[in-house]
Amino acid sequence: MIGSDEQQEESPVIYYFIEDGSHDIFCSSLTKMIQVIAECYETGAYYITEEVVQQRLFLGEDEVKVAQVLSKYNPELLDTTLKELQQVEKELSYRKLVSITYRLMWYKDSRTVEPLIDLLQVSESDKKSVDDIFQIQALAACILGRINHTRAVEPLIDVLDSQFRVTRWNAAESLGNLRDSKAVEPLIKALQDSDESTQNKAAFSLLKLNAVDALIEVLKSDMPDVRLKTVRTLGLIKSYLKESCSQDVVNQVIEAISTLNEDPLRSIREAVQNSLNELRL
């Protein structure tokens, strides 16, 4: 949508998200939006996926290429975003961080990483309410996973122990997006988290990291919940990794999971059979 009926060429293009009613500035003008879209198609940043559902084709995007094109045509908007992020740091304002979230994700500028890490590490001593701290930390953890900069790996690992469960599960998911092997052991530990959503995010991130050997070792855990989660996760490896998952790896996983066929817990034995069925399809 265009911000103003008058002088539309100079008005920012506002992107509205139907899911939650939020919005953000996509491009600084209609002309620049047209240029962005054209170059995204020309460079392959936008492409038609091979997936066909009900005779419909879908548009895919290379997020890194899209970010480069957006930055090229909207340098002034990026500068504005950096200034707004500085203001967020100063005021510790969750609302202001929300207002620039999508721009931070779209532009993926490395200059935003350190300020976001500072927000990730904000503490109660900063004279903000617990709710404010939780919301800021959780959102910063989410954004860092989309900017795709390895500088964020260690800080995200650190907050896997956060007292706030949403921060923990956002950190677990973001570590999978960053695809750094340093995250494997911390994510294995996160499979023991008291929060099921964090366990699930950690499990899927381990799949993204292709941490098959590490997951197989976890099958030996003394904790039934961890064994159960790991069996289910390994059962998804073929469908999740698709072409990058060789038959040798599938056979390795089948052999490992089969060792729990006689597990004392019925739920685990059932999970083993379900996973084996998935892997043998």
From TrEMBL:
<dbReference type="InterPro" id="IPR016024">
    <property type="entry name" value="ARM-type_fold"/>
</dbReference>
<dbReference type="GO" id="GO:0016829">
    <property type="term" value="F:lyase activity"/>
</dbReference>
<dbReference type="GO" id="GO:0030089">
    <property type="term" value="C:phycobilisome"/>
</dbReference>
<comment type="similarity">
    <text>Belongs to the CpcE/RpcE/PecE family.</text>
</comment>
<keyword id="KW-0605">Phycobilisome</keyword>
<keyword id="KW-0456">Lyase</keyword>
<dbReference type="InterPro" id="IPR004155">
    <property type="entry name" value="PBS_lyase_HEAT"/>
</dbReference>
<dbReference type="InterPro" id="IPR011989">
    <property type="entry name" value="ARM-like"/>
</dbReference>
<keyword id="KW-0042">Antenna complex</keyword>
<dbReference type="Pfam" id="PF13646">
    <property type="entry name" value="HEAT_2"/>
</dbReference>
<dbReference type="GO" id="GO:0016491">
    <property type="term" value="F:oxidoreductase activity"/>
</dbReference>
<protein>
    <submittedName>
        <fullName>PBS lyase HEAT-like repeat protein</fullName>
    </submittedName>
</protein>
